[in-house]
Design a protein that fits this description.
Blueprint (H helix, E strand, L loop, with lengths): L7 H8 L6 H17 L3 H4 L29 H184 L8 H8 L2 H89 L43 H8 L8 H6 L47 H4 L1 H12 L2
Length: 496
């Protein structure tokens, strides 16, 4: 029979009827209990006590006077049990030694557990102290931060009030500076416009004077060409007459030489016979020299005429170049004036937008509008006591400010026309340009209007007379004037 060490009650119940010795049974039970308590190794815990005692239980005597019969164990079995008991006692001693060892270990562990509990209590107390210290420190810091927060709030309010006052003062100063700059800009614009108008008038006068000078030079050139043509024609006619006379004399002399001796003398022959042949030859040589001299004079006159014509053409080219340069300069000035007018209009629009935005802000805030110093349409409130611009006086002028704009293309074509005459200048001199003056009302700023072009007439002036058609001078060239005398000069030599 196998008995587990954990079932002590079962072991007792099983061992009792088998007739085991009580001392042995107690030792076995004690050993089993110690094994079960200390959790001995498995080989010791799983040991089984096999009880197979072939005991012979004698029945009780049927009589009442007999003794109770005991358990009879065989000597072999008893020896075996004695050996087993000795071994169990030896094991019991070993187990007691182990028990003492385990008790010492248990005491050491209990001491260690006690120390750990004390340490945990100490650590917990220290943690509570540190927690209390940290909470006190944080509470003090929170109080200090609250005080600092209150101080910063007070300082922030003071600083905000100071900055508000400072910014208000700077805003007032900037508004005053803006008003002064606007006034200065307006004066500067007026000065520039007047200066540009003076320059434009000066350039127009210079252009007109250049045109007049060019027309005068053209007329003088035409007169000189006509005079030179007349002189050339008179010289050619005179030379032709002399050459005709010489040819006639040569023909007469040739006829006289060809005439036979028996022919009756004519009166001309009689007059010619008076002179000797030497005188005749001398006269012929004189006439030839005269012809050569006249040819040289003609060539010199033609050369001088060609030089004068080249000089006149060069002067005309220079005048055309000067006129073109002046026209380009005038175009550049007009472009600059257009750019200035655009800048003026842009600045006016930007100032108008700024003032409208400022007026809207003031109206939204319910404040009194401040001084407006820009010449834009603006209606001042009845409560404003200052004028719109510090330097404006609208009591004595009624004409709007009209700075000049660029001339039209028609005006440029008028200046570019080659047949410009003095009659065209009367209308241009009679045009009166508007002078830059201020308007009477501050809320009606007139936009710049273009000035009348030079080819348009004012209603007050009578229309100018129509200009004469431009004269195209016919300059006789050397190719047309030289062949006539050269042909006629060769003609006498070709005669037989």
């Amino acid at each position: 029979m196998v008995v587990s060490p954990d079932s002590s009650y079962l072991q007792c119940t099983l061992m009792a009827p088998l007739g085991i010795h009580p001392t042995l049974r107690e030792a076995v039970l004690e050993c089993r209990q110690e094994q079960s308590q200390r959790r001995l190794p498995a080989w010791l815990a799983n040991t089984a006590v096999v009880v197979s005692v072939p005991c012979q239980v004698e029945p009780k005597a049927s009589g009442g006077g007999g003794k109770s019969g005991g358990i009879v164990i065989s000597p072999f079995r008893l020896e075996e049990l004695t050996n087993r008991l000795a071994s169990l006692q030896q094991e019991n001693k070993v187990l007691k030694i182990e028990l003492e060892t385990y008790k010492l270990k248990c005491k050491a562990l209990q001491e260690e557990n006690r120390d750990l509990r004390k340490a945990s209590v100490t650590i917990q107390a220290r943690a509570e102290q540190e927690e209390e210290f940290i909470s006190n420190t944080l509470f003090k810091k929170i109080q200090a931060l609250q005080k600092e927060k209150e101080t910063l709030a007070v300082n922030y309010e003071k600083e905000e009030e100071f900055l508000t006052n400072e910014l208000s003062r700077k805003l007032m100063q900037l508004q005053h500076e803006k008003a002064e700059l606007e006034q200065h800009l307006e004066q500067e614009q007026e000065f520039q416009v007047n200066k540009l108008m003076k320059k434009i008038k000066k350039l127009e006068n210079d252009t007109i004077s250049k045109q007049l000078t060019l027309e005068q030079l053209r007329r003088e050139k035409i007169d000189l060409e006509n005079t030179l043509e007349q002189e050339q024609e008179a010289l050619v006619n005179r030379l032709w007459k002399r050459m005709d006379k010489l040819e006639a004399e040569k023909r007469i002399l040739q006829e006289k030489l060809d005439q036979p001796v028996s022919a009756p003398p004519s009166p001309r022959d009689i007059s010619m016979e008076i002179d000797s042949p030497e005188n005749m030859m001398r006269h012929i040589r004189f006439l030839k020299n005269e012809v050569e001299r006249l040819k040289k004079q003609l060539r010199a006159a033609q050369l001088q005429h060609s030089e004068k014509m080249a000089q006149y053409l060069e002067e005309e080219r220079h005048m055309r170049e000067e006129n073109l340069r002046l026209q380009r300069k005038l175009q550049r000035e007009m472009e600059r004036r257009e750019a200035l007018c655009r800048q003026l209009s842009e600045s006016e629009s930007s100032l108008e937008m700024d003032d409208e935005r400022y007026f809207n802000e003031m109206s939204a805030q319910g404040l009194r509008p401040r001084t407006v110093s820009s010449p834009i349409p603006y209606t001042p409130s009845p409560s404003s006591s200052r004028p719109i611009s510090p330097g404006l006086s609208y009591a004595s002028h009624t004409v709007g400010f009209t700075p000049p704009t660029s001339l039209t293309r028609a005006g440029m074509s008028y200046y570019n026309s080659p047949g410009l005459h003095v009659q065209h200048m009367g209308a241009s001199h009679g045009i009166t340009r508007p002078s830059p003056r201020r308007s009477n009302s501050p809320d009606k700023f007139k936009r710049p209007t273009p000035p009348p072009s030079p080819n348009t007439q004012t209603p007050a002036l009578p229309p100018p007379p129509p200009p004469p058609p431009p004269m195209q001078p016919t300059v006789p060239s050397a190719a047309t004037s030289q062949p006539a005398p050269s042909q006629h000069s060769v003609h006498p030599s070709s005669q037989p």
